[in-house]
Every structure is written in C-alpha cells, then in structure tokens.
Amino acid sequence: MSIPDRIILTLYTVLMAVVALFMIVFTLGMVSLDNIAPFVQSIPGSWEYAVGGVVLLLVSLRLLVAGLGGTGVSTITVGNDKEGKIHIAKNAAEDYVSELCNDVYGVHNAKVVVKMADNQLNVRINASVEPGINIPDTTDEIKRTITKNVLSTIGIDVKDVEVFFKHIKAKQA
Description:
GMP Synthetase, Chain A, domain 3
C-alpha cells in the first residue's frame, strides 16, 4: 500500500472511530437527542456537508479499490503449458535479485523492483557501493550475475537491468 493510501486509511480510521464513539454515546443515553436536533435540522441545504459526504464516498471507494487490488500478492507467470501455469510471487523474485546484488563484492543495501514485459523481466536496482569500487565493472558484474542466475533459477530471460548507486559509503557490520 502506498504512502498516500496509508494516510487516507489512517484519517478514515480516525473518522470511523469518532462515528463509533458518537454511536456509543447516543445509544447509552449520555447525550440527549434534543441537544443534537438543532444540528441535524441545519444540515439540509448546507453545501459543506454535501462536499464532506462526497469526499467520504470517494475515500471509501479508493480504499475499496486499494483493498481489492493492491494488497494481494502480485505474481509473475513463469511458465504456461497444457499442465498448468507456474507463478512466482513478485516479492520472491525481488528478494532473490536483491540477494544476488548484495553478494557482489562492494555492493550492499540493494533494493530491487522487477516488472514483467514480453515474457522477460525488467529489473531496477537501487544500491549502495563501497568507496574504491570500480562502478562500471561492478555494474557489469551485477548484470551478468542477475541475467545468469535468474534464467537458471526462475527460468525467465532478463531483458533489462538498471542499476542506480544512491550512496558511496562503507559497508556497516
């Protein structure tokens, strides 16, 4: 779930907690409905409440869509024949490629995103490299390692590998 979705979910949860609190207070008779009647009578014809209702509806629909599509495990289909399909979790492929990158001398803290296109993987790597490492040679080694090992383990060709070194710093123990 993305950061904006988490913020929306947090605000929505707080709002629902307030609504639940009001329901509890009114059902237990802690606040008289006579005190709330003038407020309820002021709602018709007030555009501010209509806008609030529309915003609440849109937030609800956004959370519903995120809940139905965004939170499931995304998979990559690595094989498809008459016996059935072979799927691998996208996270599994990303974790595997991340480990391969971190095993290359001088590279650490690799974060990987993989995407499937035309039955081939596109790999984007954000990593840190230690000082004194030859970056072009290290990048070539990462590309060779990933291409060879992904093909032999997962069975998919790697179309493109993008390597971004975000930091040049010493490896921390």
